[in-house]
Amino acid sequence: MFNLFKKQKKDLVQIESDYREISNRTSWHLPPNLGWLECKLSYEEISHLWKCVNHSKEKNLPSFKENLAGNISHSYELNDIDDYIFKNTLCPLVKIYSNCFLNDPMKRSLNNFLPTDKEKFNLRLEKYWVNYQKQYEFNPLHQHGGCYSFVIWLKIPIEFEDQNKGNITNTPLRSAFEFLFIDSIGTPSTYTYRLGKGFEGTMLFFPSNLQHQVHPFYDCDEERISISGNLMNVVK
Ligand SMILES: [Fe+2]
Description:
about 30% helix, four-stranded antiparallel β-sheet, binds fe (ii) ion, Jelly Rolls, alpha+beta, single chain, 5 helices, about 240 residues
């Protein structure tokens, strides 16, 4: 019995040593893929967004619903007054995105999806709108048109944890926002944002083709207010 214990101990040491030796001559590789940016907006940016929302109401700007997949009561066009968000937020994020995801050598395989050749294209904020989502309403799986798109949560009247309390399921998703993508072995995968007040003033900036969906919330009469937009590369 005593000898057996000693032998096992020796094997464990040997295994650890083999592991370290093999680790030292092994590297790992992650295939190139596109992700998204998550940006906390400044007080000035959020104030500007509310200004755009109020301007849209005052000027009675047209409904945007017919352009959207969302089963949401009210969506309206916005004007980016003085091109503020385009110049101060979106253009820097395009650069940050490029630095994060389109650096060499990945750029070679991915830049077809995101043409950024400044000599041939002008980037423009082509679509820009506000959504007023009521309880039970949802936005099914969809993608946007354009090059880059974004969503900004301005007002979230519920907390994910409260919404899913007593929700007997192995996939609690009430009030969540999800990205859907295919992983390197072909499995559809999701990344879930468990939305609550902490996400007010947060922007997600992503390739327009990245699929996403918005789940409904319940037991709350207040609206959830979000802003979205699409950046297009327009041929000069
Ligand atoms: Fe969307």
